[in-house]
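User: I'm preparing a small set of examples for a lab meeting where we compare how different chains pack in three dimensions. I only have the primary sequence for this one, and I'd like the structure in token form so I can line it up with the others. Please keep the answer compact; I'll paste it straight into my notes.
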Amino acid sequence: MWNLDHPKLYTVHVRLLRAGAVVDEDTRRIGFREAMFTENGFQLNGTVVKLRGLDRHQTFPFVGQAMPARVQRQDAVILRKQLHCNIVRTSHYPQSRHFLDCCDEIGLLVLEEIPGWQHIGPEPWKLVAIDNVGRMIRRDWNHPAIVLWGVRINESRDDDSFYERTNALAHALDTTRPTGGIRNFRTSHLLEDVFTINDFDFPLQTPNHPLYLNTEFVGHTYPVKTTDDDERQREHTLRHARIHDQLASSPGYAGGIGWCAFDYNTHANFGAGDRICYHGVVDIFREPKCAAAFYKSQCDPKEEIVLEPAFHWASSDEAIGFRRAVVLSNCDHLKWYMRERSLASNPWTLVAETDPDRLEFQHLRYAPFQLDMRAMNRRALDFPWGDLRIDGYINDKQVVSRMFSGRGVASKFALLPDDTTLVADGADTTRVVLRVTDEFGNVHPQANDPIAFTLEGPAELVGDNPFALMGGTGAVWLRAGEQPGTVRLTARHLRLGAQTVTLTLTASEPESA
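Assistant: Understood. Below is the structure token output for the 513-residue chain.
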């Protein structure tokens, strides 16, 4: 069976023969699984799975949607392997088949929906939308990761005769999957199988139908940039945590898909004045904000032990000083230490111990940790500020430790490629991440330095040169040329020196006749 932890796939090879000769053939991958929405939530192969995911816009810096297979697949990896989501919604259009292929391979469930956003046009327009339903289902019906077809224009008004037709076509083409329709008002007529709704209130509305899935929350109501202060980073993180805590409180909620995964490009009448919507828990370069740590922290420690702060370690990054520290972790106990400055010879002093906050978060499996900085045992210190260390424990055993510099100085520059081998087909592409960090590897959010690149070899730089860091991070992409060989990308920071990455370009397979 295909499931989240072991997404078993099978290959079906079909040949059309005429007089014993092959005249056409095709190959598809499939998976066997039972996926259904019930009054007790979503069930996969008979087991209830609380859905926890994010919406995805398929846009990238510099190029819009024009990224090839490797980059599209990487988004699925980020969602499933780095953020530990179990579902993604393709808002608001069917997305790259390569992205969906990767979802199949790594066990990331998908709600896929037809193109559109709020607007419903006249009858010729509706015929195109109905045709889009058929095109989406026919193209993608073999993907086991897809568990729900979105057959309504996102956040559109009710139009029963129109949506009766979209549902009828979806059910005629695919009897194995339910339909949903993303609306933003509670009184909307339910013509689909699952009541799917964008709900940006808190507390959330209670389910008004037995099959109920939240498909957007937080997002545009609280946009956050990587450079925003601790107070805003903390609140952004806690808003996502509060929503998922409520979703976990009742089986009536099948789960929730937050708005949204990645910041995305937009037009001049929307966004933050720079044609970017900062609605994501991850920035447009696929670098995590603090809120991403909430999703990451909800995995079993057997999969990954997580200890991530929802703050920048600085004494006055918010008004009236640093008052409350939030940490996202799947540990069951934390110990907090401080020392005067970044010298190994300086002793660490225990200043606090915390447990998960079960008062505010009663239903989450792994609740955030919260520490009132004013209650910290600072009297044990003979210095006002310094380095921070947090040790994480599970069953009284230390399993993780993180350190954060109190110096406030950019100390290291890192150049991190997602891949070191590309195919020389003129299209294959990979991301190269830029980070300026403290001495312990934590991103320095005030670094906005220009980075100058030198590229050698048969590849193209996709991005700005020089590139200005934003919140201590950023990324460019390298696109392979058509000649095999070696590519070297050197990035130079004015104060922290240069870093070089080397990529190998292998020959592409010749196209079949």
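A couple of notes for your slides: The first strand starts at residue 10 and ends at 18. The chain is about 15% helix and 35% strand.

User: Perfect, thanks.
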